[in-house]
Amino acid sequence: MANTQIFNLEGKVALITGASYGIGFAIAKGLAAAGATIVFNDIKQEFVDKGLANYAAEGIDAKGYVCDVTNEDAVNELVAKIEKEVGVIDILVNNAGIIKRIPMIEMKAEEFRQVIDVDLNAPFIVSKAVLPSMIKQRSGKIINICSMMSEFGRETVSAYASAKGGLKMLTRNIASEYGQYNIQCNGIGPGYIATPQTAPLREPQADGSKHPFDSFITDTKTPAGRWGNPEDLAGPAVFLASTASDFVNGQILYVDGGIQAYFGKQPS
Ligand code: NAP
Ligand code: GCO
Predict the structure, then answer these.
(1) Band of residue 41 on the pLDDT scale cut at 50, 70, 90
(2) For residues 14 and 86, is the Cβ–Cβ distance under 8 A?
(3) One-character DSSP codes across 110-125
(4) Is 191 in the pocket of ligand 2 (CB under 6 A)?
(5) Residue 4: band (very low, low, confident or very high) from pLDDT cuts 50, 70, 90
(6) From 94, 100, 102, 149, mutation site for ligand 2 pocket: most ligand atoms within 8 A of C-beta
(7) With a 6 A CB cut-off, is 255 part of the ligand 2 pocket?
(8) Catalytic residue numbers?
(9) How far apart are CA 233 and CA 191, in angstroms?
(10) Going along the chain, which residue ranges are E strands?
(11) Predicted confidence band at 1 (pLDDT cuts at 50, 70, 90)?
């Protein structure tokens, strides 16, 4: 019989930020299937309620809280509340994120800051809040949701690429600074995944044809020839949340259908 015990998350509490739907929700479902207790947050009560309904429909008894991850006081309150009501957070997935697709010379500094705030400052804030208890218990897993833009640039995403590149380095730094306490901090770098965040890149044209960016992803950039599904990220997240990865630290696991390995489709 296969030894799946090393992936068992029973008895573990997992906080997944911004996980009412999309990638965070799929990762949470994967962690729940491995036995973890699921806690998530979203900015507004109405999104938390939608999230709770989504989890209930999957038979998952998740706890949802309202919290803006960019607000340090609110995050500290949230973590204290979770520790009191559910237990110490063993697994943190920094998933909440935003993107603004604006050419750099048209982007306002304030817009740039907003992206850095959610995609880079917030993972720092939430990680900082959960680390003291992880240090005390001498174990913990932090998974930062990075991006293709942790490695590449492209038109219109200067703020997002800066944040996700920074998040890769925050991942390595947390691993370096707290690895001595048996804390592992790794990243998942999703490829192009079909979620509301990427919906504008898949919107069909007025004449019903495929969006050119959609064809770009499926026909020239991704060896797998398709967009990823949020569920494609669940297995890698379970691996990085479990004892199976106890000596893996500071790595970014790209889950991208081969994009990072590929130079791009040759002209025929
Ligand atoms: P999504 O569908 O837009 O979901 C993002 C979630 O983050 C939403 O639930 C959103 O809440 C929440 N959020 C945003 N700002 C927040 C804040 N300040 N506090 C709390 N929650 C907040 O995005 P997704 O595609 O699932 O992406 C999830 C993560 O994966 C992001 O970090 C994204 O950058 C990353 N990623 C996505 C892709 C992709 O192709 N989709 C690829 C690589 C990486 P609301 O519902 O309230 O807006
Ligand atoms: C974009 C996309 C991406 C993806 C993802 C890729 O506009 O290029 O939204 O940045 O969401 O992060 O890994």
Answers:
(1) very high
(2) no
(3) HHHHHHHIIIIIHHHH
(4) yes
(5) confident
(6) 149
(7) no
(8) 160
(9) 10
(10) 13-17, 37-42, 63-66, 91-94, 140-145, 183-190, 252-255
(11) low
DSSP 228: B
Q: Does the beta carbon of 148 lie inside 6 Å of ligand 2? A: yes
Mean residue pLDDT of the chain comes to 98
Q: Which amino acid is at 39?
A: V
The single-letter code of the amino acid at 58 is: E
Determine if ligand 2 sits within 6 Å of the CB of residue 165: no
pLDDT above 80 (res 44) = yes
Q: What crossing angle do the helices spanning 158-178 and 109-116 adopt, rounded to 10°?
A: 30
- Measuring from each residue's beta carbon to the nearest atom of ligand 1, which residues come in under 6 Å? 17-18, 20-24, 41-44, 47, 68-70, 95-98, 118, 145, 147, 190, 192-193, 195-198
Strand partners, 144: 94, 187
The two tokens of residue 195 are 């979620």
Ligand 2 and 198: CB distance under 6 A = yes
SS3 5: helix
pLDDT at 228 over 90: yes
